Amino acid sequence: MSKISKFFKGGGSAASKGRGGPSPQEALARLRETEEMLSKKQEYLETRIERELAVARQHGTKNKRAALQALKRKKRYEKQLNQIDGTLSTIEFQREALENSHTNTEVLKNMGYAAQAMKKVHENMDLNKIDDLMQDITEQQDVAQEISDAISNRAGFGDEFDE
């Protein structure tokens, strides 16, 4: 099968074929690689712009044609640089969106995991049993308070007398 037909029939990397697309980590890595490549190209174009500007200054009024050609090349490089800036902005936005969606997915998975754990914990709990237990606890606390009150009252024989 030719490379072109593989491309149009979805021929991709072996890692992404079995899962129906790349993982978020793979996509993030590729976006970062692309950002690095474009940053290097930016640096290259910036040095080329400086070099063409130096050539234009060197020729100045002596050789106007060479100076104009250098300025035209500089303008072309600046246009490429602007395009790369726009592309980098788009890639950065896409990378941030992918990172956020990956984070949201992980949070959602963990919330589901916690919900399952809570369900398992509450499996053995019956609301009626809990209500009865809470009533028993309240009754025992009342009894304990009555005992505490009875013990803490002064036992004064003769302090209380009836006229």
Automatic annotation (TrEMBL):
Residues 9-21 have a biased composition (Gly residues). GO terms for biological process: late endosome to vacuole transport via multivesicular body sorting pathway; protein transport; vesicle budding from membrane. Residues 1-25 are annotated as: Disordered. Its main location: cytoplasm. Keywords: Coiled coil, Cytoplasm, Endosome, Membrane, Protein transport, Transport. It is found in: Cytoplasm, Cytosol; Late endosome membrane. It is a peripheral membrane protein. The keyword Manganese does not apply. The keyword Coiled coil applies. It comes from the Eukaryota. GO terms for cellular component: cytoplasmic side of plasma membrane; cytosol; ESCRT III complex; late endosome membrane; multivesicular body. Belongs to the SNF7 family. This is CHM4C protein.
